[in-house]
Amino acid sequence: MGEVETAHPIARRRAELREVLHGRGMRMTPQRQLVLDALLELGHATPEQVCAHVQRTTPTVNITTVYRTLELLESLSVVRHTHLGHGAPKYSVHEHEHVHLVCHRCGRVDEADLGLMSDLCGTLREQHGFALDASHLALSGTCADCLRGARRRGADEETP
């Protein structure tokens, strides 16, 4: 088909996001493009991280512009924010429904398919009449790398 299909994944995603905005009667302004590009490259990022990334190439973009752009893009469901622990929320391009897994040791953030939460969502609805929005959820725990490191340290301590 078109060149968008064969383009680099970020370029393809950029074109898709432009179409979403156009479909809602909005333009892809240079500032919106810079913020979206930063999120596509950074993954999960605070507004301050997005601003710092953007300012590397365009120092005239300020934090207020970044916040306003993120708010607009979130209202259009192009990006979403999640509280991944203490501090500022982290924003990401809304590509698929997922739950965040946050390692409380190293701070690593992974994504898990939202389907893993289906049993919990069903139980909450049946027993409490509560509809959980698990896509906004961050679960805290220990990542596989930190668990392996803890096991190795434990084995080293037991060795005479």
From TrEMBL:
Pfam families reported for this sequence: FUR
Keyword Mitochondrion attributed: no
Origin superkingdom: Bacteria
UniProt-recorded Gene Ontology molecular function terms: DNA-binding transcription factor activity; transcription cis-regulatory region binding; zinc ion binding
InterPro entries membership: FUR, Fur_C, WH-like_DNA-bd_sf, WH_DNA-bd_sf
Record's cofactor remark: Binds 1 zinc ion per subunit.
The keyword Glycoprotein is assigned to this record: no
Signal sequence coordinates: none
Binding, Zn(2+): C103, C106, C143, C146
Keywords: DNA-binding, Metal-binding, Repressor, Transcription, Transcription regulation, Zinc
GO biological process, one term: regulation of secondary metabolite biosynthetic process
Cofactor list: Zn(2+)
Family, similarity comment: Belongs to the Fur family.
Protein name: Transcriptional repressor
